[in-house]
Inverse folding.
């Protein structure tokens, strides 16, 4: 059974970005529609709520059925959807963010944590699928915050404008949070 992902270094880096960037978004639009792909334990959504985002404008998702049940119980005032990426979603959002599984396959990784950490052979398979569809769910001035690692290879960013919002060096990799727009 896949485990629910509780916050690690990547979660903290993305949360710091939300703390810096979401107040700027709220200044321009007090009710932005926000989607998180792969909400895990809901750590990022707790950050959004602490920043004053209205729960009814937040959509949480996860492919892991246990994470879905956990989130549904915990965030009763938000929309919680059991979905593989955008499969069960048909709306557009002002902000979409994702701390994805981004590591290349490694036989030493325990089975229970692979769904949350391993993004296929090159580490980018889930990210590539995400990028294929994310643009179709973004409002015209919308933004995407996406975390990747220096170990994630082979991403084609060509459909997006991109800039770096934050970086963090760990001892075997560097994490980056990107802002993507159309
Ligand atoms: C690295 S964890 C991040 C969890 C949480 N957002 C955080 O920042 O702590 C990645 C999450 O994405 C979920 N996930 C993996 N593949 C997915 C997919 N194809 N669609 C939706 N969620 C997915 C995992 O179950 C896991 O909860």
């Amino acid at each position: 059974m896949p485990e629910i992902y509780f916050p690690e270094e990547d979660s903290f880096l993305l949360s710091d970005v939300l703390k810096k960037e979401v107040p700027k978004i709220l200044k321009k639009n007090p009710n932005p529609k926000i989607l998180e792909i792969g909400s895990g334990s809901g750590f990022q959504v707790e950050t959004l709520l602490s920043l004053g985002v209205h729960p009814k404008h937040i959509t949480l998702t996860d492919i892991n059925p246990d994470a879905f049940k956990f989130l549904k119980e915990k965030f009763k005032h938000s929309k919680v959807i059991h979905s593989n990426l955008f499969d069960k979603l048909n709306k557009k959002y002002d902000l979409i963010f994702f701390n994805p599984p981004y590591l290349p396959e490694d036989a030493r990784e325990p089975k229970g944590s692979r769904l949350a950490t391993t993004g296929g052979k090159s580490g980018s398979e889930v990210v590539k699928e995400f990028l294929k569809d994310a643009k179709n769910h973004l409002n015209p001035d919308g933004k995407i915050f996406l975390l990747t690692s220096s170990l994630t290879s082979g991403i084609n960013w060509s459909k997006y404008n991109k800039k770096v919002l934050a970086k963090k060096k760990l001892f075997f990799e560097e994490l980056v949070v990107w802002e993507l727009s159309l």
